[in-house]
Amino acid sequence: MAEPTRLAILRQLAALPEVCACDFTSCTGVTQPTVSHHLKVLREAGWIVGERRGTWIFYRLAPDAARMLGTIAASVSPAQITPTDPSRRRLNVLQA
Amino acid sequence: MAEPTRLAILRQLAALPEVCACDFTSCTGVTQPTVSHHLKVLREAGWIVGERRGTWIFYRLAPDAARMLGTIAASVSPAQITPTDPSRRRLNVLQA
DNA sequence: CGACAGCATTGATACTTGTCCATATAGAAG
DNA sequence: CTTCTATATGGACAAGTATCAATGCTGTCG
User: Fold this and answer.
1) For residue A47, which of A42, A72, B46, B74 is within the disulfide window of CB 3.0 to 4.6 Å?
2) Which nucleotide C1' is nearest B20 CA?
């Protein structure tokens, strides 16, 4: 998802409840096949979901996109120790 | 930062208070020049900070790495409306 | 059925970049 | 100053991929 065009798509979806596929060409500045390609990537990665209504396909953020992002964020954030769990205190002094 | 080798570096730094540059070659599986290259990228992007002590350079997560991540996460997360600010309610119905 | 519009796919191309080897620089120690 | 170790840099190569033009597919509407 860390790619300019895909970020533009995700940010558009973050601002609006749902977006028609044909609208992404204008907000990304790339052609329709390229948009289709990125939508496929994001769809298969589980970031977005598409729903066909007639000729159009409306996309929205996947229900647990925020949770996925949180999981990734946690893996690269300093370990936080829950004060109610003193047994894990040693994790913080893991000095190799 | 979304790149396997760089993620491995960041995760190592998330688990340990500080890591010597020479230790990243083993935990990433790439050669020393490659590690040096990625450290430079992460340093210039503001994710990590390095401190030279003698011959070694010790790296740690930048103080506001977590905040940077939060900012990015927020930009691709569904807009949340603060219940105490009804004037912004219209943002949620921005249907193009 | 035929025409049209939205979306997907294919093939080709060019650009990006992660990786390595070789080498240069910086600091410490003898 | 010389030597050794740690890190940085330069160049080259290959893999990945973002992009587009052309085309195919799938719905909708006369």
Assistant:
1) A42
2) D6
Q: Which residues contact B70 (CB under 8 A, 6 or more apart)?
A: A73
The tokens describing B66, both together, are: 């977590």
The structural domains of chain A, with segments of one domain joined by +, span 4-93
Topology of domain B4-78 in CATH is Arc Repressor Mutant, subunit A (1.10.10)
> Please, are residues A77 and B69 in contact by the beta-carbon 8 Å criterion?
yes
B63 close to A (CB below 8 A): no
Q: Facing residues of A19 across strands?
A: A59
Q: Percent of chain B having pLDDT more than 90? A: 65
Q: Which of the nucleotides lies closest to A30 (Cα–C1')? A: D19
The class level of CATH for A4-93 reads: mainly alpha
User: Touching check for A22 and chain B: CB below 8 Å?
Assistant: no
Q: For strand A56-61 and strand A48-53, is the pairing parallel, antiparallel, or unpaired?
A: antiparallel
Q: Are A68 and A47 in contact (CB under 8 A)?
A: yes
Report the residue of chain A nearest B10, measured CA to CA: A76
Cβ of residue A53 closer than 8 Å to a chain B Cβ: no
Identify the pLDDT of residue A70: 87
Quote the pTM value. 0.81
Q: Output the pLDDT for position A94.
A: 27
Q: Give me the mean pLDDT over the A58-66 stretch.
A: 94
Does residue B9 contact residue B24 with C-beta atoms inside 8 Å?
A: yes
Specify which residues A60 forms β-bridges with.
A49
